[in-house]
């Protein structure tokens, strides 16, 4: 499974109304650690078809960043049935990311 780009218009449908866990990556094109995290997310997404992986560019969807209190990026939030169950700020190595999506 690939990482899906979401914004203010489709966030509710793709994340909050999803019947599976969803990992949201809040990021920006100018953010170095965010760019380093992209291939890690893609690799983990391809090995975890039971979790949906989505990406939110905070420059495109600043209202979502504000709504979820995003102060630093990258910020990963794991949702289950619309509820936040885990959050991590900063670059995450593959092993920690896999634990984050599989242990919650």
Describe the structure.
The protein is α/β, with parallel strands linked by helices and 104 residues long. The protein has a single domain (3-102), classed as 3-Layer(aba) Sandwich (Glutaredoxin). Helix content is 36%, strand content 30%. The protein has helices at 11-16, 32-47, 62-67, 94-102, and strands at 3-6, 21-27, 51-57, 75-80, 83-89. The chain has a five-stranded mixed sheet. It is globular and about 30 Å long. The mean pLDDT is 96.
Quick structural summary:
The chain has helices at residues 11-16, 32-47, 62-67, 94-102, and strands at 3-6, 21-27, 51-57, 75-80, 83-89. The two termini are 19 Å apart.
Number of strands: 5
CATH architecture: 3-Layer(aba) Sandwich
Strand order of the largest sheet: 1-3-2-4-5
Number of distinct helices: 4
Order of helices and strands: EHEHEHEEH
CA(first)-CA(last) distance: 19 Å
Q: What portion of residues is helical? A: 25-40%
How would you classify the helix and strand content by structural class?
alpha/beta
CATH superfamily: Glutaredoxin
- Tell me the major beta sheet: 5 strands, mixed
How much of the sequence lies in strands comes to 25-35%
Low-confidence stretches: none
Indicate the CATH topology: Glutaredoxin
The level-1 CATH class = Alpha Beta
What does the average pLDDT come to? 96
The Cα radius of gyration reads 12 Å
CA-based shape: globular
How many structural domains can be distinguished in the coordinates?
1
């Amino acid at each position: 499974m690939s990482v899906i780009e979401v914004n203010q218009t489709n966030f509710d449908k793709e994340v909050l109304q999803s019947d599976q866990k969803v990992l949201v990556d809040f990021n920006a094109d100018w953010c170095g650690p965010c760019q380093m995290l992209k291939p890690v997310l893609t690799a983990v997404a391809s090995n975890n078809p039971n979790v949906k992986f989505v990406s939110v560019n905070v420059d495109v969807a600043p209202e979502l960043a504000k709504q979820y209190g995003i102060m630093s990026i990258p910020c990963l939030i794991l949702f289950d049935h619309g509820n936040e169950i885990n959050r991590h700020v900063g670059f995450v190595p593959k092993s920690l990311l896999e634990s984050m999506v599989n242990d919650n």
